[in-house]
Amino acid sequence: MLWKRPVLQDWAFAFLYDALRQAQDDKTGMSDLDTNLATLTARFRDAVASASDAHALDEVRIAFLGRSGAVTEVRKGIGKLPPAERPGAGKVINEAVQGLEAELAAALARVENAALTRSLEDAIDVTLPGPPAKIGAIHPVRHVAIDVARYFTRHGFAVVLGPEIETDANNFDALNIPPDHPAREGLDSFYLRPDLVLRTHTSPMQVRAMRKHGPPIAIIVPGKAYRRDANDARHLFMFHQVEGLMVGHGIHFGHLKGMLVGMCRELFGPSADVRFRPSFFPFTEPSAEIDVKCPACAGTGEVAAVQCRTCGGSGWIELGGSGMVHPNVLRSVGYDPDAVTGWAFGCGLERIAMKRHDINDIRAFIENAPGFAEGLA
Amino acid sequence: MRVPIAWLRDYADLPADANEIVARLAALGFPVDDIEMRPRLTNVVVGRIVKLERHPNADRLQLCTIDVGSGKTLLIATAATNVAEGQTIPVATIGAELAGGLKIAPRKMRGVDSEGMLISAEEIGLPGEWFEDGIMQLEPSIPLGTDLIAHFRLGEPVLEVDVTPNRPDALSIVGLARELAASFGVPLHEPSTLVHYEEGGDDARVTIETVDCKRFVYQRVGGLRVRPAQAWMRVRLALAGQRPLNNVVDVSNFVMLELGQPLHFFDWDRVAGKHLIVRDANDGERFTTLDGQERVLDTRAIVIADDQGPTSIAGIMGGQRSEVEPATGEVLIEAATWTGPRIRRASVALKLRTEASSRFEKSLPLALADLGAARAAALLAEEGGSVAMPQAAGMPATEPPPVTLRASEVERLLGFTLTPDEIEQALTSLGFTVARGDAEFVVTPPYWRGDVAIAADLVEEVARVVGYDHVRAEMPAVAPQEVDSAAFDRETGLAVTLAGHGYTEVLSLSLQPGSVAETWRASGIAIDEPVEISNPLSEDQRWMRFSIAPALLEFAARDRALRPYLRFELGHVFAQANPDPRETVHLTALHAGPSTGSGQASAFGRLKSDVLALLQRITGVDARVTRGEFPSLHPGKTAALHVGETLAGYVGVVDPRLARAYDVADTTALATLFVETLPPYVTPKYVAPSKFPPVDRDLAVVVPEGILAGDLVDAVREEPLVRGAAVFDEYRGPQVGAGKKSLALRIVLQSDETTLTDVAADAAMQRIVATLRERFGAVPRGSTSSPQARER
């Protein structure tokens, strides 16, 4: 089967030729065996020395120690020895083979280490671009909603969603907004019919949720709302709010502040702070505007001695409206305002996203320019 | 509202630092939107021209000898032409700094040393065109030598203050001064209404014929001489942004800004019949307002008419016919109260919003009318007017009803405790009358606080005075509740998972022009009747979107340079229905790939794979695919996706008619999922893998063209040994014949009990082939074992 061997180096052929020829010679004896082993060992060492990689060493192994290798041919000589010498010869050959195998293993370790050492000197141009990554992104407004929801759900709140087409009764009446309020005259609100409006805030979900579930209740409501404004850098007629509502026994204004401080820290970092300013909303009493300490200037109004762009120098950012749920609202959903109290708030999600990402034109959110959402994810 | 701090200080002793006032206003609920700083002014004193002579060397200059008090005079040359001996005027002395950066230095004017300058209103930072040409005229009552900058507080900023609609009382200088005085704990100096009434003159007649006139106070003031108002009034008006006109008209504007009660003065001599009728306007009634515009009225407006017809639009603007003019000698003061919404509706109908209407539309307290008239009468008396007794029609002014406040209510709502004394003091400082009981207060609001009607309102008042900063942040303990977050969690899961597959979420407007539906219908695509907005802002926003696809197709066309293009939107779509419009939540995704094929690498194939993976992740179930049809998708290239028995949505190649209309490639793929009706997530159960090696077999069968790969795979899966089956190639060509196609399937066979022998595998394959032949007329093209057995 010699012919089947892929590459056999010259020295191996030469050696085999000698061994075969001697094996055919009847005069073979122990001394010849010794000579042969010595020659074989010498040639093996030459071969190992000249092998520069693991592959070449493997060829050496096959040529000398393989099934049809040189050692096998030498072993065949044992049969021609006088029977008394045969065990001794076998032992000599086995010892020789063990020695050769150890040398081969050492050589293999040497060339592999050398190859590893050489490979450490390889280098590639790491600045060459790879293939385009498959990057998708959720919209930055959803991102804010998810972050707000994560915070509130961690504190036991549920997140509920509701319809954008709302009854005039839920959107206004149940929220203590009187029939002659300007928002109800078609200048500020989109109407489908006299009794159906595109919700002007997420607050009607307060009404729906409280009518469905008795107190205690603790929910937030992210979603779209609509106001009849022309789109400009600060206004969109379609925008997103998140509403918060908590009603139960012993719920007070301080709890609203506590939850909002936590929310702002979640959104703007651990140094965020919140302040309340008196305000007016028909569905809360007392009512408060929520300001959050500007995350860009930490409330100082200045960044590197220049007026802070994020808050316009005031040190505070208006976040939304809030207050204690008006007794009339509690009554309209069948709650007893003498038994339970509650608070509610509403914030614009676009506004939060704008402050987070330094966006100064709200229209960017509906433009959907390539890379916009991906860059903010 | 423009609020000059200079004017606020007339009524309360406020801190010197304007920033302190600004911060306190914000803390009281009146945020300051803008602070207008005034120019730096120095060295302007009050002087009197004691001698006026021609300049010896210049025709156009005059030399004035000015008495600036303490026996001191200055010689000043002026080119102004409105100077006369005896005038009291502002004098800028040497070293003065004036508006516009002007500095007064000693100088010679044609050989005469001029010791300063006589100055105009513009030079002290007031709008020049609102004042007399030339040198500003001051009232002689100001002591000579007075520092005019300090006297008029001209260095004080002017604030733009935001007043919430529930507080029309604070749309006035006194109203805000009252709030500040309460907050700073200083007394409020209310303006004087002291006046001596003349005998007679209380014979004017007013008839009210509309329910929306609540009260109408009127009062004759005669003996007037129309001329410029005194400087102190003109300066205040100008700082507040109100142009001074004359001493009569200015009084009505001054009282409106000072007290918040808009007034109207009729020139009494020009009131025909000396009888005013307050009535609803007639449709089409024409009338010229005092700005010279002819207006066509309708019944929404209220007019005040005399014998010749309307002479004023109630609550909005007076008429030209009876306006105060230079010859006016007697006026009738009108101080009325109207139903707020009525005035707002009339103002909207006329597209005319005025300082008056913006106050009246918030429903003013009745008693303010009496106060406003009295204050105007007092000011007109200072101008030499003889004041008749006031008269009134309509409802009498009453006190707001008392409100009971339990002492514990403050803590119940705010979470912090105040002593009864603190509560009482806070309320009385704002003008409330407090009667204390054992555990409660009976509180009567002042007449100007009609907005305070319940205990919670009083709690807010207390909180405002002690400061909202007293509210301590505290975390609530959230009680267990029955509400869940399933819908939100699902939407979040869908959006986040799809984004993970490389899709970018977009946000498009829910309102759109009618052209969108027209485009679809013109393309032959049936859509549900869209929902119409009855009062759109523009035609571009008249219709609610019936589908998210139009927006995605528009973005795909706009961003055509970007491929592959993967987008989605999750939102509500709307359709007309009975009795109410239908609102559903859609997730629509678009894949505009660079590929053009129809196989697995096509945009359709990729989108389908992504949507199936999404459905699996969200519902926990592998969706089933059948043929389907859905508006927006090619009728022959649409798959319906089923999760259990629920139709989850559709994925398909865009309808070619829409592809052409939107100018996108006809290989663009769209998918829509019906978000609300997706079945809830089912937790998948663990199936232990077989301990025995699987055997892969490939099978190619020729089937008629109409056979679906999915049906074939479903049939293959009926064989119990089949662990997996998928079509990996579809071929059409001469070798399989016309009307037929070859489908290649890879089938994984495996047993849970034993290592499959070739014999057992072959037997299974034969059963499969038999089933396919029987069910679909499939003819095998040869069954081979895989090149190598899979190793585990």
Indicate the topology.
The complex is a heterodimer of chains A (377) and B (792).
Chain A: H1 10-24, H2 30-50, H3 54-65, H4 70-76, H5 86-119, H6 140-154, E1 158-159, E2 165-167, H7 168-171, E3 191-193, E4 196-198, H8 204-212, E5 217-226, E6 238-248, H9 253-268, E7 274-281, E8 284-293, E9 302-303, E10 306-307, E11 316-325, H10 327-332, E12 341-348, H11 349-357, H12 364-367, H13 372-376
Parallel strand pairs in A: 1-5
Antiparallel strand pairs in A: 2-4, 3-4, 5-6, 6-12, 7-8, 8-11, 9-10, 11-12
Helix pairs in contact in A: 1-2, 1-4, 2-3, 2-5, 3-5, 6-9, 6-11
Chain B: E1 2-4, H1 5-8, H2 18-28, E2 32-36, E3 42-55, E4 58-67, E5 73-78, E6 88-97, E7 107-109, E8 112-114, E9 117-118, H3 148-152, E10 158-161, H4 173-184, E11 205-208, E12 213-222, H5 231-239, H6 249-259, E13 264-267, E14 275-280, E15 286-288, E16 294-296, E17 302-306, E18 309-313, E19 317-318, E20 331-338, H7 340-350, H8 355-360, H9 366-382, E21 386-387, E22 391-394, E23 403-406, H10 407-414, H11 420-429, E24 433-436, E25 440-444, H12 455-466, H13 486-500, E26 504-505, E27 511-512, H14 515-522, E28 543-544, H15 549-558, E29 565-575, E30 582-592, H16 603-619, E31 624-627, E32 633-643, E33 646-654, H17 656-662, E34 669-674, E35 695-704, H18 709-717, E36 722-731, E37 740-749, H19 758-776, E38 779-785
Parallel strand pairs in B: 11-14, 26-29
Antiparallel strand pairs in B: 1-10, 2-10, 3-4, 3-6, 4-5, 6-9, 7-8, 12-20, 12-21, 12-22, 13-20, 14-17, 15-16, 17-18, 18-19, 23-25, 24-25, 27-28, 29-30, 30-34, 31-32, 32-33, 33-34, 35-37, 35-38, 36-37
Helix pairs in contact in B: 2-4, 5-6, 6-9, 10-12, 11-12, 13-16
